[in-house]
């Protein structure tokens, strides 16, 4: 990456962060949703520590997946409506690089806070402390995938009037492999089984996704603005 591209990427990151932080509800709502879902599970199934520990990996990951969907519809929607998305296509830097900046901003505002509050969520669900490092690793590897794959769906549905339902139908099936690998790794850690294989598969999936999705999103953006 040349110096000029790096400066443009930094400018795009700064601009998108400023715009996103003006809509504080987009940052706060996913966290509130996450806490509500996690706190309701012990109430619904009872306080049995064995049951909570057994379902904790799946509950945390499903809640994280659903929380990431809350702000995806607006990832490109506001830029599309005010014409900024067309200007993004005309920038001298490669469009996949500009798209990568928006994906990174989405992760910083949704995925990173989730990683930071994961110990508290694990405590609420009585997850063993021995499994907490594995949970954090799966979230660090997996939450960028949620933002990247979600960006593909957001770009494809940006021109639709009510694209939220279509967006969910598009991206939810793509999240299934991530959900399987991530929860399997944490469950293995809970029972003291080896986790290297699951983490390696999750890392490979994450690298492949983050490498290819910016190009897919860029192609979808060009289709949407033309």
UniProtKB/TrEMBL annotation:
One matching Pfam family: CcmB
Compartment annotation: Cell inner membrane
GO cellular component, one term: plasma membrane
Keyword annotations of the record: Cell inner membrane, Cell membrane, Cytochrome c-type biogenesis, Membrane, Transmembrane, Transmembrane helix, Transport
Topological category with respect to the lipid bilayer: Multi-pass membrane protein
GO MF term (any one): heme transmembrane transporter activity
Transmembrane segments: 27-45, 51-72, 104-125, 131-158, 165-186, 198-221
GO BP field: cytochrome c biosynthetic process; cytochrome complex assembly
InterPro entries on file: Cyt_c_biogenesis_CcmB, Cyt_c_CcmB_bac
UniProt record similarity statement: Belongs to the CcmB/CycW/HelB family.
Functional summary from the UniProt entry: Required for the export of heme to the periplasm for the biogenesis of c-type cytochromes.
Protein name according to UniProt: Heme exporter protein B
Protein species of origin: Pseudidiomarina planktonica
